[in-house]
Amino acid sequence: MRKGFLRLVLVMLATAFAVNAQQTAAPASTPQAAPPAPPKTHLKVGQAAPDFTLPDTGGKPVKLSDFKGKKNVILAFYVLAFTGG
After folding, report:
1. How far apart are CA 11 and CA 18, in angstroms?
2. Which residues, other chains included, contact 61 with Cβ-Cβ below 8 Å and sequence gap of 6+?
């Protein structure tokens, strides 16, 4: 009885892993999508960034030009941060 139950559990686990592997694997017949083209811009490498305004964590608008000559600026985007996604 115990061996039969153990075999049943092993078969169920193997089936679950096989189904999961099939769902996550990309189909071989579909062609891979080409990487997206970079956005078109008039900026060149090494040029200064254009002035823009974004809200800070408190909602107060902050302009890039406010930091000119004062600090180093790093702009980081955290995709889906604080969205629950």
Report:
1. 10
2. 53, 54, 55
Dump pLDDT digits (tens) for 34-54. Answer: 888 877 778 888 888 888 888
Low-confidence ranges of the chain (pLDDT < 70): 1-6, 8-14, 16-31, 83-85
* Rounded Cα–Cα distance for residues 68 and 57 (Å): 20
Which of these, 72, 54, 71, lies nearest to 63 by C-alpha position? 54
SS3 percent helix, strand, coil of the chain, rounded to 5, is 30, 5, 60
Question: Token pair of 16, please?
Answer: 């679950």
**Interatomic CA distance for residues 84 and 25, integer angstroms:** 26
C-alpha–C-alpha distance, residues 51 and 30, integer Å: 43
Nearest to 21 by CA among 11, 29, 13: 13
